Amino acid sequence: MALALEQALAAGGSDPSAIENFQVTPAKVTGVTRTLDYDILVIGMGGSGSAAAMSAAETQKAAGRNVSVLAIDKAGKYGGTSSVTSEMMAINPPRFMAAHNNEVAKVQLGVFARPLPDTRRNKSVYVERSVLKQAWLEYTEGDAKEDLLDLMLDHSGETLDWLVNEHGFVFGLPQLGVEPSATYYVVFQYNGSFMDNKHLIIAYFDKLYDDYLKLGGKYMLETEAYELIYDQAGGKVVGAKARSVDGTEYIINAKSVVLATGGFAGNGEMTSTLLSEKYFPLQGTWNQVGMHQNDGKMIQSALNIGAGTYNIGMTPIVHIGGGRQLIHDFETTTVRVNGQDRPYALNDIPMIMAISGNVLSVSKRAERFSDESGLGFLEPWKGGPEFYSIWSQDQIDKVRSKGFDTVTVGAFISQGGVPTGYPISNIDEVINAAIAHGISCKADTLEGLARQLKIDPAKLAATVQKYNGYCNTGVDADFHKAKEFLVPLGSSGPYYAFLGAPYCYSTTGGLDVNTSLQVLRSGSTAPIPGLYASGTDCLGVLLTEKKAYVTYGGLAQGWAFTSGKLAGASAARSAN
Description:
The protein is 29% helix and 20% strand. The protein is globular and about 75 Å long. Helix 2 (47-62) runs parallel beside helix 14 (555-574), helix 5 crosses helix 14 (555-574) and helix 12 packs across helix 13 (457-473). Strands 1, 2, 7, 8, 9, 10, 21 and 22 form an eight-stranded mixed β-sheet that branches. Strands 11, 13, 16, 17, 18 and 19 form a six-stranded mixed β-sheet that branches. A two-stranded antiparallel sheet has the order 3-6. It has 14 helices and 22 strands.
């Protein structure tokens, strides 16, 4: 962000160093502790926390009680990852369906924009619940908790109606999920638009918090909860400790605490220990397009008092892939191609080489993990937090003289790309920059390359031999990559590796909960009194560690709002 501001200042003719005038470190206080008392404390003010706080306040108000709800967030804004995403899943929202005569979208918005024929068998609903449920249970191989799945299927529709009719959110007609194979009309995009609506989304959250404050709810930003307060004698959670950006310590006593902290993708130590290696090589530090402040501190605090987990080891939520690190060494220009000016962003070349569909890519196990043509979208998570795309000198020489045969850049993280078939005469300069940044390496032999990557040289050699065999026959027996993308690795060095990575929104698995969203004790169906979880802090209850996040579209957002609304109501009822 600082770099973007500096570039904007320079483009406007100002001194980029002027940004320093706005970089002020607040004065810190020491030795100041305040004690606060509330019925309900919501930790996290993203989609799930905002819904939880609003629902808790409404529940107390409806019961004729004084509203005593406090929401806190370590960030300087509310909305979290939910405010920068595009869509939520909802199943047959009754009021929305009635208002729109059960119509569905005629055009699919998003990455795979296309006309959308109405293929429903039963046009009296958006989706047949029983059909979706059966498909969901089959996809998750019986690992999803059926009672929690029923909760999502039965309450997500009314949650969307609540957001729209009570709190002013706007959603477009339902469409399909992002994958071309998606078949269920369960995806509702904010404002019926894609990626150009972030100013509108935050306005929806502004309205929600206006409603919340009018009921008597309170919130504090830049206030980080770091530990649950646990009554050992009573075996229950009775609040949390928090710290403000100015150093003030808070002891927040509460009858109910709702965790809505957005998972733990921002904590490399947790993703390196809690994610599983059983099905995929997932352990390590992951790149993010989500909120880096989602560091799992309160999930860890729950684990410390004996909370159970559910599918906590499964893959994070990933849509896009790119380079392990973006570089900014070169100025983006334009070149003339077929009478048109085209972007020429040399900074994107390490990313292009990391997720190119016509090269060999391996994980830290020195094995292929996917059809490489899918590394830019949906498939990169299978290689774990980092993977390596291998190039031989002859392939580099071809790029220098003839350009790339195919160009893939990560959605939302590209600086413009380069045209296909356009010679990259200074490719060596770009590679040297990538090596200097630690996102590429070079060796005379494959064995030497493997040692630099700290992967097994013998396994890499065997993988290359097998892959080249597939290239020679034109048939990829492992991942069925199309013949035109099967380009063999050259037989002589030097060889190069470019580090690729999936970019995740959040972790997926987390704490185990029951249908009241109470956090359960480890190895038990008994809840921890006073403790609730929502959103991606407990999304794993709907999924399986054997596969990725489901492809129906918008689940994390739909579960955030639905579980948050239900958790807030449950927390308020138990705080009587």
